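1st attempt posting a full record on here, be nice pls
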Amino acid sequence: MPSIAIDGYPIAYAEAGSGPPLLMVHGTLGDQRSWAAQMEAFGAAHHAIAVSLRHCWPGQWTDGGDFTIARHTADIAGFIRALGEGPVRLIGHSRGGHIAFRVAQHHPDLVQSLVLLEPGGELDETLGGAPPAGQQGAAFARGAALIGEGKVEEGLTVIAEHTGGPGAWAKRPEARKAVSRDNARTLLGQVHEQRRPYSRAEAEGIRIRTLLVGGDQSQPQFGRILGALEGAMPNTRRVTIPNAAHSVQADNPADFNAAVLAFLAQG
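the predicted structure (as tokens):
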């Protein structure tokens, strides 16, 4: 499995195809395999690259204290530079969408275009954030506590149902469950990730051409984030993928892939 060392840590990745670089960043409890249904389609016209974030499979959480948004943002920026192919088409899902947002915010020279697939996090008051803010952190803390006690299935169920609604874990295909199990202990680091809420000033400052993507069956919190970013970011389009909940790229890969490729073909 190829990797690129960033600040001494090997960032593993999968790749397919050739052409303009397209980099995919997975979300919580995921890894490069979270984009399996995208590799062939995106690789037909791009150098498609799916990374595994620091400490995610094939790595592991080792209580190193560096499972933070800032660390992962720096890793992705460093990876793009080390890749040496110029600015990338950057796609991030859920927590990976938050990281992609921060890369675009702090390193706009590295991003040619941006796709935010149900980016995770919360909104501050400038973007209409209001109680019950903090629900995500509380749910993730509950899940992490269970995983820390060895109750992995119970902890993963908490996270799946927070992002996907009641019964989400039970409905999940076994291959996706296996990815979550392989990354379960990363949640022990993620609860200390120091994720700031999105602000209007930050969103308004990202002028990179951006596609905002959501699923028509997703939980309301993701629609609120997409709506707030759509209203603040100056160069956005928004699409809703049918027959898809939070894991849009896995729930309906055909329509998701088509929407992203159409967006990328426009510039």
